């Protein structure tokens, strides 16, 4: 008996559901393109989420086709692809959430004025950020910032403990392995490890956001509530996967009880696995995540605070940028209008009026 594949075999009764979710994910493509195009909402921290949109659109299209074609229905390649994809979808979203959590924890640590290094914060590169800017009296907290960065780095690397077993387990779903007890036990162990680790790490993200709400001045409640919603949705997927992984099947096309091919099992799969993933992705893309988490384009990319030399270079760049912006403003707002009348030229410039004959 081999572990039953999550989602079961693609049966003809699923055709409508597969078409529906292929279309729903396809409808997210314009949002992906808009978030990439619009510089005020562009952030590269959602790369994994955007790739999941592409992956799910392709996967459900193939799954819809396989419900009508027996050769695709029992294809080893499609089986491995679907199991890897279903296993890593929620993990990929949670992985992106770690980068957002880093901004959530780091942004409130910056203080007021030049000594507060507020211009280094990701929110400083986000127009109309949901984070409140530092006010007079807000002190810089570099130690807390350093700990937050180290914590998020370790948390992000820990997701490898969920990704790697999930990929290996998904790749072992082949018809030739269905009669091998050793391979079956190995797949079961790897799947449990992947799902358990991802669920545990999602709970850590939730606790970190709760800590920010309680202990960080200027914590952004909007970003924290969004984090709670996303980890809740990812948690639903993790709990569902853990709850059905004990089911086993004698063969891929078996419809015996416990093979995850029954109508009830199919309904549970779509409601508790696919729908939460879709809602999480829709939240990340549908709302301006850059503004909510104050990420800028690249998030909190610094491994440590800038030293004196880097600060001096940054100030120099900022001064040059400000000077160029001022020149462009003068050219646009104070565009010279020359009126020649009777040999007299009147030039109206920003800040004054001059006449010459």
From TrEMBL:
Keywords: Membrane, Transmembrane, Transmembrane helix. Residues 316-331 have a biased composition (Basic and acidic residues). The chain crosses the membrane at residues 15-37, 151-172, 192-211, 223-242, 267-287. Residues 315-336 are annotated as: Disordered. It comes from the Eukaryota. This is Uncharacterized protein.
